[in-house]
Amino acid sequence: MYACKTVVCSYNGEQYLAEQVLSIECSFKSAGVQNHVIEVFDDGSVDKTNQVIIALINQLSDGRLSYHTGANKGVVSNFINAIFSAETPDVEWLFLADQDDVWHEDKVSEYFNVFQNIPVESAAIVFSDAALIDEEGTVFSTSFFHYQGLSTDVLKDDSILFRNCVQGATIALNKPMIALLRNSLNYIDITTMLMHDWWLAILAKYYGQYFFINKPLIKYRQHNQNQIGAQNKYRLIRFMKNPAKYYTSFVKTINQAKAFIKMDAVIKPERSIHQTNQFSLQYCGFLKRVLVFLKITF
């Protein structure tokens, strides 16, 4: 068995948080793990999230659930803070979780099957597909990847700098990856990090390892309060409907890519993207490739 911890980041999560925490507990029990811990990192909720968590702490007992609350700093800062809380000798793997999803019973055991093939010294992330559910828990897509037109092929070349495929709510990362993430913040301003999951995917591609489980091991809930949410795969239609919004998001993507390139120029100056200003973007998509080459200069 692996020494694991799960962090759940919440903000005004009273409606679904209990179901999520109990599904996590069930998945670890199904895998035969008795000594894991779950920590909820709340980002200054103003609803009844606090009461829900206190009730869960009493229900689970044995110190398996704890609760931290802070100022409203946003989803990225909250997750980064939660991740760094696991920088302890007794945590080998850290699972990330959103407040309103539901884990499948066999999620933990499926991840453990992958963990055993990863060298302990290698910085790594493991992630999976997800089913999409509505507010009532009804499945309307059995694959987040298919619904959003995603592919792990973007991790084969530099496409990952401009198109993410890693869903944060499915990530597990190990101790070396946590250390790598902390070190990266010596080179970049956290405000340039578009999302923590995307940054972890970039770090895994260029400095570590990544492993994808092609199964929907969580139910990813879609509702009006989603911070990000799933979007259908027809990106050109989204662009045409709201080009200003698309372009704003693209500029943030460019800024994150530039931050990585600047960092990597120090760490790996021999990499070809620094010497030629050329990217291999075979899997990025035509529209994104055009915009990248029109917009980006390093």
Which features does this protein show?
298 residues, nine-stranded mixed beta sheet, 11 helices
The CATH class designation is Alpha Beta
CATH homologous group name: Spore Coat Polysaccharide Biosynthesis Protein SpsA, Chain A
The CATH topology corresponds to Spore Coat Polysaccharide Biosynthesis Protein SpsA, Chain A
Q: Judging from the principal axes of the Cα atoms, what is the shape?
A: globular
Fraction of residues in β-strands: 15-25%
Coarse structural class: alpha/beta
Low-confidence stretches: none
Q: Rg to the nearest angstrom?
A: 19 Å
The sequence of SSEs as H and E is EHEHEHEEHEEHEHHEHHHH
Average pLDDT taken over every residue: 91
User: Could you tell me how far the N terminus lies from the C terminus, measured between alpha carbons in angstroms?
Assistant: 46 Å
Structure annotation, total helices: 11
The multimeric state of the shown protein is single chain
CATH architecture: Alpha-Beta Complex
How is the biggest beta sheet arranged?
Answer: 9 strands, mixed
